[in-house]
Amino acid sequence: MYWSSGIVRIALIAVVMAAGLSAQKAQRAPKLEKPRKHGIGIVYAIPKDWKVEEGSEAVMLLPPGVVVDAEKEDNPEVIVVEIAEGLEGPEDAAIGDELKGRWGSMGVEIAREPLKEVFSAPGRPGAIYTLDLRKGGKNVRVRAFYVMVKGKLLALTASGETARVTAREAALRAIAGSLDFVALER
Prior knowledge:
This protein is an alpha+beta fold. The protein contains 4 helices and 10 strands. The protein is globular, with a radius of gyration of 20 Å.
C-alpha cells in the first residue's frame, strides 16, 4: 500500500512540476507614456518603447521591432485603435459577426467562434473578443478590446500570430484601460 501511494505521490509531483514549467509567467503591465490624442478625438497611452503611425481614422501601434507592410495581408502582428462605428456598445451582438466578416474574408479558416469576456476600465464598460483562425498552417489570433467612452465605442484590435498576440496581453490591457475620447471643437 505504501509503495503504491508513494508512486502516486511522485506522479502527482511530476504533473505539478510539469504544469509549473509550462505555465506562462505572469505578465506585468508596462508603464505607459503620457496620453496622446489623435485628430479624431481618440486619446490613448502606449508603453514608452512603442511607436505610432497615425492614419486619418485610426492609430497603428508598433511594439519594438515590429514593422507593418501596408501592402501585405500577412503581417506577423498588427495593433490598431479606432472608433468602432456602427456598433452600439461593447456587448453588441453584431461584434462577433463583424470580426468573422472582417478576418474571415482574408482566406483564413475560423478555428473557433469568437469568445467574449468582460473588460472594464474605471467608469468605462467594455468587453474583449477573441477570434482564433488558421492561415496557411499558422495559428492566428484576433484580440479586440471594445471600450465605451463618452458615448463612443473605441476598439483596440491586435491581430497576428497567436503567440505574438498572447505575449502582448498585459500591454494590450493597459492600453485599452487608457483609452479615452475628447470631442472635437468645431
